[in-house]
Amino acid sequence: AYIHPQALLSGANQIALDQTRAAATAFGLQTIVVPLNSPINEAEYRRVFESNAGTFETAMLTTASENLTFVRAIADLALSLRIATIFPWREGAEAGGLMSYGPDLKDIFRRAAQYVDRILRGTKPTDLPVEQPTKFELILNGNTAKALGIENMSERCVQGGAVDDIERGELHTQHTTSIFIEVITKWSAGRVENRP
Cα separations (Å) of 179 from 63, 64, 134, 136, 176? Predict the structure, then answer.
């Protein structure tokens, strides 16, 4: 499932959704878009997860600020329902999500502070270059993987080359996304086989 605020599903967010669908389709998986309705709060996340608990087993959360605001509640709720979560920032995995993969937010804020400093010292904003993130992180939460029954997740990501992709700065490559989907797919298949 691709969880995102309904009002923000356009532009760059639509491109990210299209890329997620393409990666999932390569593994024969369906991407379910699960919109969050306003007001976005802890109760809305509970509604989304609980009403769709039998529909999806993996939730990918987008970069919407609401998802960062409620990261602990999201991770706790998902784990209680045995739904694996993938976040685009380390705070998601640290809060109890299964994994995170994305730019280092602290580095981004550090760079933003440097821009503010340069502007306050007289540099015209139009003279500053537009920068893209250059530092990315893969965080795997071993405790959550164990609680979900996923074995050897970190070894699989290392052996499959996902860590090498990240070290080269290849964010959201087809190869790395495929490894994550493969790990989750095998876990999901095992859950279906073991259901009473």
Answer: 21, 24, 22, 17, 5
Residue type, 123: T
Per-position pLDDT tens, the chain of length 196: 777 666 555 666 677 778 778 877 877 777 777 888 888 888 988 888 888 777 776 677 666 667 778 889 888 988 888 888 888 888 888 888 888 877 888 888 899 999 999 999 999 999 999 888 877 777 888 888 888 887 766 665 555 444 444 444 444 444 455 556 666 666 665 554 444 4
Distance CA 88, CA 12 (A): 14
Contact between 56 and 83 (Cβ < 8 Å): yes
